[in-house]
Amino acid sequence: MRYRWLIALALVTATIVVAITLRDRTPLRSEQCVAEVGKVRAEVDLEQARWSALMSAISLRRGLPPRATTIAIATAFQESKIHNIDYGDRDSVGLFQQRPSQGWGTVEQISDPLYSIGRFYDALVRIDGYGSLKITDAAQRVQRSAYPAAYAQHEASARALASSLRGFSPAKFTCQINPRGNGTISRVVQSVEAAFGDVLVATEGSEASYPLTGRPADVKARGWAIAHYLVANASHLRITKISFSNREWSAPASDQGWTSRSGTDSDTVRVSTN
To answer: What pLDDT does 182 receive?
Structure first.
């Protein structure tokens, strides 16, 4: 009997080891984010998605039109490939290669995306009629680049990203990620507040909800702006699930994008880190 018990224990142990090994060998996904609007498919990496979403959120918070978002994203595409770089032409750094020697701020300030995006919009809104200018012309008036025509090549992708991240193209922005474990809901709330400003939020355990009020069209756009922002930051903040307007995104099934789910709130964005 003793030997049978030992054999049975060995078989159970072997089964557990095999299961763990198979789990650990699960192939990793290729991580990327996509904005698919009309015939345009804009593919970006996780860092590009994070900063594009921040540009969108800050422009929304400031009450700027979606075109301002498009101009900012197109500019960052050209200047840094939407990466927060610590190098650049001469003394320039950050998303827009802003230069301390030209009055944009200190290196430390410009290296903070919240600051650099804000400074870009400060300069943009001082341009009379920027909304009616060609995107490359508006970008050039802010940046004064040696290659003014270069911004135009990023216009289509920037438009698709701006349209989805501002919430005007619902469920058209998604990210495919490899889940990295549970985050904390307090980090999520802090990130959304830093991006969008003072927004109504309720938290319970590992979940947060963002109830929205106003005209249905405004609620829909703002809801999708927040939902898409959360997706863009899902890897960074270790978010596991987001839902809004009969759609759901989850980290374990992120390769499926936004999936239909009846019963989700049409006026409340919900997010979970568990």
So the answer is: 87
Burial 201-230 (b: 16+ CB within 10 A, else e): beeeebbbbbebeeeeeebbbbbbbbbbbb
Length, in residues, of the chain: 274
- Judged on CB neighbours under 10 Å (0-12, 13-18, 19+), 130 is buried
Which residues have CB under 8 Å from 60's CB, separation 6+? 69, 166, 196, 222, 225
The predicted model gives 257-274 an average pLDDT of 91
Amino acid at 38: G
* For residue 271, pLDDT beyond 60: yes
Which pTM was predicted? Answer: 0.88
Q: Are 223 and 245 in contact (CB under 8 A)?
A: yes
CA dist 48 and 44 (Å) reads 6
